[in-house]
Write a structure and sequence with these properties.
Largest interface: A-B, 26 and 22 residues
Number of helices of chain B: 0
Shape of chain B: globular
Structural class of chain A: mainly beta
CATH topology of chain B: Immunoglobulin-like
Strand content of chain B: over 45%
Oligomer: heterodimer
Distance between the termini of chain B: 40 Å
Largest sheet of chain B: 6 strands, mixed
CATH superfamily of chain B: Immunoglobulins
Helix content of chain A: under 10%
Radius of gyration of chain A: 13 Å
Order of helices and strands of chain B: EEEEEEEEEEEE
Distance between the termini of chain A: 36 Å
CATH superfamily of chain A: Immunoglobulins
Largest sheet of chain A: 7 strands, mixed
Number of helices of chain A: 0
CATH topology of chain A: Immunoglobulin-like
C-alpha cells in the first residue's frame, strides 16, 4: 500500500491564481482530512469528509473548497490564491475514530 | 479559551539522556489525546494515543506518555534518547472526536552527540 499520497510536492502561485491539491489514499478509509501548517504552528483542520459525497468545514475553511466523489480521492481547491494561504498542506485519512495517517505534504508559496 | 499548549518550543538533550516533552490542554471533558512526530520534510507519524483506561500509554520507538487528569497534562517521555529521535513533536487533542483534532505548536527536539 502507498498509504496517503499528495501532489504536487511544491508549488508557487501568483496572487489570484487557482489550483487543486490532490490527495489519494489506498487504505479504504472512510474519513479524510485537509490540514494546513504554518511556520512554528501546529496543524489546523481546513475541511474533512466522512465518506464519498459528504464534506464539512473544519477550523479554517475560508478560501478553500473540497469535494469527495470517491472513497480514495479528496482534492482541495484554492480559487483565488492569497499570500495568507502560503503554508504546508497535509492530507490525512482514517477509519472512523482510529489513527489518522498523514501524507508527506504539499508546500505552497503564494507571491 | 480551549487550547493545547506545548510550553517548550525547543529542547536539546544529549544522546542517551532521558526526555520529557510537556503538553497541557484546556478542554472540559477528557478528550482523545495523541502525540505525533514529524521528521523534516515528512508528514506526521503517530507515536501513541490515549482514549481511556490505563493512564500510562506505551507507543512506538520506545516512547510513553502519562495522562494526568488533575493536571490536564499528557507528557511524553523516553528513558534514553537516540540521535534519530531529533524531530518535531506535536501533542494533539480531539475533544469532539477525530473531526475536531487540535494541535499544539510543537516542540523541536535536538539531540547532541
Amino acid at each position: 500500500n502507498a498509504g496517503v499520497t499528495q501532489t504536487p510536492k511544491f508549488r508557487i502561485l501568483k496572487i489570484g491564481q487557482s489550483m487543486t491539491l490532490q490527495c489519494t489514499q489506498d487504505m479504504n478509509h472512510n474519513y479524510m482530512y485537509w490540514y494546513r501548517q504554518d511556520p512554528g504552528m501546529g496543524l489546523k483542520l481546513i475541511y474533512y469528509s466522512v465518506g464519498a459525497g459528504i464534506t464539512d468545514k473544519g477550523e479554517v475553511p475560508n478560501g478553500y473548497n473540497v469535494s469527495r466523489s470517491t472513497t480514495e480521492d479528496f482534492p482541495l481547491r484554492l480559487e483565488l490564491a492569497a499570500p495568507s494561504q502560503t503554508s504546508v498542506y497535509f492530507c490525512a485519512s482514517s477509519y472512523v475514530e482510529e489513527t489518522q495517517y498523514f501524507g508527506p505534504g504539499t508546500r505552497l508559496l503564494v507571491l | 479559551a480551549q487550547s493545547v499548549t506545548q510550553p517548550d518550543i525547543h529542547i536539546t538533550v544529549s544522546e542517551g539522556a532521558s526526555l520529557e516533552l510537556r503538553c497541557n490542554y484546556s478542554y472540559g471533558a477528557t478528550p482523545y489525546l495523541f502525540w505525533y512526530v514529524q521528521s523534516p520534510g515528512q508528514g506526521l507519524q503517530l507515536l501513541l494515543k490515549y482514549f481511556s483506561g490505563d493512564t500510562l500509554v506505551q507507543g512506538i520507538k520506545g516512547f510513553e506518555a502519562e495522562f494526568k487528569r488533575s493536571q490536564s497534562s499528557f507528557n511524553l517521555r523516553k528513558p534514553s534518547v537516540h540521535w534519530s529521535d531529533a524531530a518535531e513533536y506535536f501533542c494533539a487533542v480531539a475533544p469532539g472526536g477525530n473531526n475536531d483534532m487540535r494541535f499544539g505548536a510543537g516542540t523541536r527536539l535536538t539531540v547532541k552527540p
